[in-house]
Amino acid sequence: MSRTEKVRVLIAEDQALIREGIATLLSQQNDDFEMLPGAADGEQAIEFARRYRPDVILMDLQMPRVDGIAATQRILRELPQTHVVVLTTFETNDLIFEAVSAGAKAYLLKDARIDEIAATIRAVINGQSGLSPSVAARILDEFKRLRGPRVSAKLPVRDGLTARENEILTLIVEGKSNTEIGERLHLAEGTVKNYVSTILEKCQVKNRTELAIKAITY
Amino acid sequence: MSRTEKVRVLIAEDQALIREGIATLLSQQNDDFEMLPGAADGEQAIEFARRYRPDVILMDLQMPRVDGIAATQRILRELPQTHVVVLTTFETNDLIFEAVSAGAKAYLLKDARIDEIAATIRAVINGQSGLSPSVAARILDEFKRLRGPRVSAKLPVRDGLTARENEILTLIVEGKSNTEIGERLHLAEGTVKNYVSTILEKCQVKNRTELAIKAITY
DNA sequence: AAACGAATATGACTTTCGTCATAACCGATC
DNA sequence: GATCGGTTATGACGAAAGTCATATTCGTTT
């Protein structure tokens, strides 16, 4: 994805030195970042988010008045298109899980290099995500626990569809475009379209939206 | 953490060219990797894991005889100290979640650079983890869903839409085309399209199929 | 071995979708 | 009563979806 405008970045961090330092480094890092005035606590982060509508907020977690997690919740409820990247020194399970549940798109530790922070900002803008390796490990552990023991990994195959057709149906239900499906399955776009046509006919629907609805609803 | 011995790496990948290529690149990358003979399918991966006791297995998912996920499960049950790093071209939710549940410590896509792969291998050896940015995003989404709503992560699917927009959303969810919607509401097709565009943006989705899915699911 | 059908794969072509610029309308505010 | 923000409305145009004809591969049947 290419953006014509600059990425508007807000830093919420109570220590002025760190706040200014990161802002300076980031603006040196690349000229496509527009650094907004820094927020010194959670309350101010909310206020500045409302006022400046940042694309990305670098959010510290331990801040006066309103902490970073509460600020994240309130900002995302009001401005859901904002991307919050947590940047903190602490990495307890509780903090990590709460931050992610609050809607943080990435969780970095303060020992991250500035180019990693910049790369993560670009990633979240593109709908991706970034986790420090040790944070990722904790998330994966909890993830496994939450999912519980798998019994049968097999998806119920939709009757009448071939294996290939089912693969494609699954991706359609995830909202993928034909191009994306083609890339994922190493098929030409034309091939995917043809599969879609076949599936549409078999399921007696007119277009992929109806198909997705039917597949979800049964 | 510093290790005195080399890191013993096993590659399980059915395409010989890719297998040899990664092995060569990794051994050039750093002299602390000891590359074991490559496994061409899941069955062989299990056999070689038993024989060579690797520290890390780079595991492809789509392989003949036994797939990568089944191989991961069986290897980790027998040799739980092994670290499995998934390296694949596919990134469907199912594959990712199953791989993680099976015990994979990291999940990389094949477009990763060789130094990223090397860094991930070192990370998992140190009890950390590595996820490609797009994979991390999927994990975090599912993670949030599994933990359940903490506050009210309500997306502005119906709320935040005007009355007219909601009428149109309802018809989209019924699988209607823009022409059909226009006839029903006595609007020009162009007008309907414009409404659809607005709704897509408000709901933060890329196309009407995703929109229908989100409207049904939430 | 030849014939056959089902599954898989592809590209040319038409239709539908989605974006963008633009404008009329209306209630609120100054 | 002029201005402003939000809703409603429209069409031109490039992008994506869907149709159709066609080809290959592979297991099964004759």
Summary of the model, kept short:
The first copy, chain A, has 218 residues and is an alpha/beta fold. The first copy, chain A, is 54% helix and 11% strand. The model of chain A is unreliable at 149-157 (pLDDT under 50).
Highest CATH level, the class of the largest domain in chain A: Alpha Beta
Q: What is the strand content of chain A?
A: 5-15%
Rg on CA atoms of chain A, Å: 21 Å
Task: Give the CATH superfamily of the largest domain in chain A.
Answer: Response regulator
What is the mean predicted local confidence, pLDDT of chain A?
81
Count of alpha/pi helices of chain A: 10
Quaternary assembly = homodimer
Pfam family, one (chains A, B): GerE
Domain Response regulatory (chains A, B): 8-125
Protein name (chains A, B): Transcriptional regulatory protein LiaR
Keywords (chains A, B): DNA-binding, Phosphoprotein
Descriptive notes:
Two copies of one chain form a homodimer. With 218 residues, the first copy, chain A, is α/β, with parallel strands linked by helices. The first copy, chain A, has helices at 16-29, 42-52, 68-78, 93-102, 114-125, 133-147, 163-173, 178-185, 189-203, 208-217; strands at 7-12, 33-35, 56-59, 83-88, 106-109, 130-131. Chain A has two domains: 7-146, Rossmann fold (3-Layer(aba) Sandwich), CATH 3.40.50.2300; 163-217, Arc Repressor Mutant, subunit A, CATH 1.10.10. Helix content of chain A is 54%, strand content 11%. Chain A has a six-stranded parallel beta sheet with strand order 2-1-3-4-5-6, with helices on both faces. At the A-B interface, helix 3, helix 4, strand 6, helix 6 and helix 7 of A face helix 4, strand 6, helix 6 and helix 10 of B. The structure holds a DNA duplex (30 and 30 nucleotides).
